[in-house]
Design brief:
Distance between the termini: 24 Å
Oligomer: single chain
Number of domains: 1
Structural class: alpha+beta
Radius of gyration: 15 Å
Helix content: 10-25%
Length: about 170
C-alpha cells in the first residue's frame, strides 16, 4: 500500500482511504533504519474483521482469534535477519523497541496478530504511567481495550512496526 506522498514519514489515516479503519490511526513516525542499510521491505500484513479494517488488540490476545479474516494465511517474515523486533513510535513517548518479538519463518496471520498484540500490551503496560507530552495521544487517553491493529509494516531489515488505531 502506498503511503501518503505528502508526508511519507508517518503512518496516517490518509494511507487507508477509502478502506476506513476502525477508529483513528495513531500518527506514528515511520521508523527509519540507519542510512546505507540495504533493505527490501515485505508487503504490509493487514488485519480485517467483520467490522472492517482493524482487529481489536484485546481480541487478538485470545486464541483462536474470533472474526479475523484469512486468519490461516501464512506469511514468511524472514528477510535475511534471524531477529524480528517490534517498534512503536507512539506520539509523545520515547521510541520503543521489543527485540526478538516475532518468530522467524512461516507464521499465520492469527499467530502474528497474537504476538503483536502481546507486544503492544507490554508497551502499553510499561509506558502508561509515563506522562506523554502529546495531549490527546497519551496512553491514559488510549486504553488498551480501545486499540486496533490495522496492519504490520516491515520498516527495516528485521524490524516491523504495527499501525494502530484507537476507537473514538
Amino acid at each position: 500500500m502506498a503511503q501518503n506522498p505528502q508526508n511519507a514519514q508517518f503512518h496516517s489515516f490518509v494511507d487507508y482511504l477509502p478502506d476506513h479503519p476502525q477508529g483513528i490511526v495513531i500518527p506514528q513516525p515511520v521508523y527509519q533504519a540507519p542510512p546505507g542499510t540495504p533493505f527490501v521491505p515485505h508487503q504490509p500484513i493487514r488485519f480485517e474483521t467483520d467490522g472492517g479494517l482493524g482487529l481489536p488488540l484485546q481480541t487478538a490476545l485470545v486464541q483462536p482469534i474470533q472474526g479475523l479474516h484469512n486468519a490461516g494465511t501464512v506469511f514468511n517474515l524472514a528477510n535475511g535477519s534471524n531477529r524480528h523486533s517490534i517498534r512503536i513510535l507512539w506520539p509523545g513517548y520515547e521510541p520503543w523497541n521489543y527485540p526478538n518479538a516475532l518468530h522467524t519463518g512461516p507464521r499465520t496471520r492469527a499467530e502474528i496478530a497474537h504476538e503483536v498484540a502481546g507486544r503492544v500490551l507490554a508497551f502499553h503496560q510499561g509506558m502508561v504511567q509515563a506522562q506523554g507530552n502529546e495531549g490527546d495521544w497519551t496512553l491514559q487517553n488510549s486504553p488498551f481495550q480501545n486499540l486496533y491493529l490495522i496492519e504490520l509494516r516491515n520498516v527495516s531489515k528485521g524490524s516491523w512496526q504495527p499501525v494502530i488505531s484507537r476507537s473514538v
